[in-house]
Design brief:
87 residues; five-stranded mixed sheet; mainly beta; 5 strands
């Protein structure tokens, strides 16, 4: 199975209740764009640290296809969040 790897950035808003919404995704990553439209941000983006405070964050990381077994794989987006603007 071919491994697909893309660097990616996204702008994410975190609300008062801690809910994340992906506002924009770098154009060179159609996989994250699709996932951002089809699933919650906390499911689409994987990070050791998920922001809890309200604000705008930049997600920087990579997307890669990871094997679940010999016949199936899942796209995973891993990276870190950096606070851009608190509100």
């Amino acid at each position: 199975m071919d491994v697909k790897f893309n660097e990616t950035t996204a702008i994410v808003a975190v609300g008062m209740n801690g809910e994340m919404v992906i506002l924009s995704v770098s154009e060179d990553n159609p996989d994250l764009s699709t996932d951002a439209q089809s699933m919650p941000a906390n499911v689409a983006l994987s990070s050791a640290y998920s922001p809890q405070a309200p604000g705008l964050y930049q997600f920087k990381g990579s997307s890669c296809l990871e094997s679940l077994d010999q016949e199936s794989a899942v796209m995973v987006h891993r990276g870190t969040f950096e606070l851009v603007s608190a509100y």
